[in-house]
Specification:
alpha+beta, eight-stranded mixed sheet, 15 helices, 35 strands, 32% strand, disordered N terminus
């Protein structure tokens, strides 16, 4: 299918300053409007036979047409030859897909046919109507897992609220007891049989909040993950895996791990458990792979001193061999490892794709995964032997779009530490010509940008490259992908050497002749928003424009208003504010506002629990009172990042307009705050 932009779309893009005259003539670049239509593949599950692949496709709502909301989740099937069949599509939200043991059915969670609560459904693999399998009375199923013989299903859910709660709320009793009025999540194990009526099973007698569960291969035991409370801080820092006897409901083994904790899974014979965790309580990320002995409970580091981060794994079904995805720098590899070994064997080498979660067929001959590259977002890939084949094409119009060159950059920082990132060149880049630069800083900082698809509503990537910008995604010290020691380099040094790295990387791009030193912008979300605020204040001489998203402005008040204060202390600050008040203040962008010369656009979700919206208010007020160029945009109902179509589109327009105004248009007055949404809506209806 050829990608064509209608006259209406061209007119909208030109009116918003998104397309140059030359671009308008070619019609074959990414614009903010078609960026808002990009679809991608989420979960992928291979059938037991390995011949078919069920997957969830994330489909954005149509701006100016559909009622606002987050992306739809559709269920599709594709076979090993790339022939796709839509199963459940349209205005649906399907998630958590799993094949039946015989491959006859696909199970999933959803609300359908007027459901008030999320229920478990099945649909025949050869087509037909979805059928409700079971639902809980007056509460939603949050997750589930099937036993290997498909006779039982383990469900995770919160207990139904007392009906008096709604009545009392209607009468005005709405007091909220902060961090105390939290509901635990419970584990239920029931027979997998279709029931017309909602059921109210008895929860297993497991203490604390249950966050994950798996059956053992013989279905006699359960691998259960718990945390003390529903608090996100407890999830990050106090989770633990246990083996529970399904019959007696007693804990047989608890695995001693420390710090952040991810997934876990039994080996095919039930002798081992692979655990995704952290090296210690100060490790910022779940990038370590551990091997646990089921009988003894002993946990050992399976890849000691690994200079990368493991992101996913899946046991083979015929032998004790684990397939894994390892991120090494900005690239990823697919590999396999056996118990007793301390190094892996590569199956798919770095540079081929950026791999997501794995799913393995019963024979182990077929592996399914979602993966992306620099040329497309996540799609379904099939791995047989060492050959990885792409099976889906969710955005065929991208085939006809000109994409800018993308490459990995590595340099030495001023103190000799290796840093780098991913550079997107301006489209139609000419050697010797200098371009404006947008530095797009990742959050975390326990994250890193990969050499794959890096364009989104808040990450300008190919969108900005099409408009004549160089775009750089820095992996500053403290980023993941290079091992635990590297990811700890930024600890106890908020905004110190980690953000000096941004300047060193910017200077490198200037020194090689690519970037105009006076036309550099910075943007990012969360910790990247912190970097953007720091760039607009302490590092103002280096940045001519800044767009701060859900970012930190005051490290003192941030600690007191976030839902991850324990995590902040253990894996970032390594101290408490009251231990060094002045230091925390001086590592806060508000402290340096008086010297700011950088126009700052601030955007934030009003329902953000991670970085309180007041962080943006503080930054705005300090800038405003000092007479600086600043604007604050709040998004009602959005949290730590925008999820709804309209908010994402609006954000994308504002980001690029701010950069255009100060990096291309020679510091014109601050752009008007209005966007032509009303006119665009009218034009859309008329079209």
């Amino acid at each position: 299918m050829k990608h064509k932009i209608s006259y209406l779309k061209q007119a909208l893009a030109v009116s918003l300053g998104l397309l140059s005259a030359s671009v308008f003539a070619t019609d074959k670049v990414i614009t903010a409007e078609n960026l808002a239509t990009i679809q991608s593949v989420g979960q992928v599950q291979v059938s037991p036979s390995g011949d078919e692949f069920a997957f969830i496709r994330s489909v954005p709502r149509e701006i100016y047409v559909e009622k606002d909301g987050s992306n739809w989740g559709e269920l599709h099937l594709v076979n090993d030859e790339g022939v796709e069949r839509p199963f459940i599509t349209g205005k649906v939200n399907v998630r958590s897909i799993q094949w039946s043991a015989d491959g006859a059915f696909i199970y999933f969670l959803s609300k359908m046919n007027g459901d008030k609560f999320t229920s478990l459904y099945q649909i025949a693999a050869n087509g037909g109507q979805a059928q409700k399998v079971l639902s809980l009375k007056d509460t939603s199923i949050s997750s589930y897992t099937l036993s290997s013989d498909n006779k039982k299903v383990a469900l995770l859910a919160k207990k139904a609220k007392d009906k008096s709660v709604k009545k009392l709320t209607d009468l005005g009793f709405k007091a909220e007891i902060y961090e105390e009025d939290l509901a635990d999540q419970f584990l239920y194990v029931v027979d997998l049989a279709i029931t017309e009526k909602s059921i109210t099973p008895e929860a297993l007698a497991i203490k604390h909040y249950v966050s994950d569960v798996h059956f053992s291969p013989n279905n006699k035991n359960l691998l259960v993950k718990t945390q003390p409370t529903a608090l996100i801080d407890d999830k990050y820092m106090k989770s633990q895996w246990h083996i529970v006897d399904a019959a007696t409901q007693t804990v047989n083994v608890s695995f001693a791990t420390e710090g952040k904790l991810g997934a876990a899974e039994f080996s095919h014979d039930g002798k081992y458990i692979a655990i995704h965790g952290a090296e210690d309580k100060h490790d910022p990320a779940t990038g370590r792979l551990f091997l646990a002995d089921v009988k003894t409970g002993k946990v050992t580091d399976w890849l000691p001193n690994f200079a990368g981060h493991v992101s996913d794994f899946e046991w083979s079904n015929k032998r004790n061999e684990l397939f894994l995805v390892a991120n090494v720098g900005p690239q990823s590899v697919i590999a396999k490892i056996k118990p007793g070994k301390t190094s892996y064997k590569e199956v798919v080498k770095a540079g081929k794709l950026i791999a997501g979660r794995l799913s393995i067929s019963d024979s182990d001959k077929t592996i399914a995964l979602g993966a992306n590259t620099a040329k497309h977002p996540n799609e379904v890939f099939m791995l047989r032997g060492k050959k990885a084949s792409r099976l889906t094409n969710s955005n065929p119009w991208l085939n006809d779009v000109a994409l800018a060159k993308q490459e990995i950059v590595t340099i030495k920082a001023r103190d000799g530490v290796e840093i780098g990132g991913v550079l997107v060149y301006p489209l139609n880049h000419k050697e010797g010509q200098r371009y404006p630069l947008i530095m797009s800083v990742h959050g975390g900082p326990e994250s890193h940008d990969k050499d794959g698809w890096i364009t989104a509503y808040s990450r300008p990537g190919q969108l900005a490259a099409a408009q004549g910008y160089a775009v750089f995604h820095p992996n500053y010290r403290g980023s993941t992908g290079k091992g635990v020691a590297y990811s700890k380099l930024g600890q106890n040094d908020y905004a110190g050497k980690e953000f000096d790295d941004l300047v060193d990387l910017k200077n490198h791009l200037v020194n090689i002749g690519l970037v105009n030193e006076k036309k550099v912008g910075i943007t990012g979300g969360s910790y990247g928003g912190y970097a953007s605020a720091w760039g607009a204040t302490k590092l103002t001489k280096h940045f001519a424009a800044s767009v701060m998203f859900v970012g930190i402005s005051n490290q003192l008040s941030k600690f007191g208003t976030t839902d991850i204060s324990n995590e902040m202390h253990l894996v970032h600050a390594r101290s408490y504010p009251w231990e060094k008040w002045q230091w925390y203040l001086e590592r806060s962008p508000i402290y340096w506002v008086e010297q700011s010369e950088t126009p700052l656009l601030i955007m934030h979700g009003k329902a953000d629990p991670r970085v309180h919206p007041a962080q943006s208010m503080e930054m705005y007020r300090y800038m405003k009172v000092h007479g600086k160029t600043v604007r604050l945009v709040y998004y009602p109902g959005e949290g730590h990042g925008n999820k709804r179509a309209a908010a994402k589109y609006d954000y994308s327009l504002r980001l690029m307009r701010w950069m255009d105004n100060y990096l291309k248009h020679d510091n014109k007055p601050m752009p008007a705050h209005e966007l032509p949404h009303a006119a665009n809506l009218k034009a859309k209806k008329e079209a």
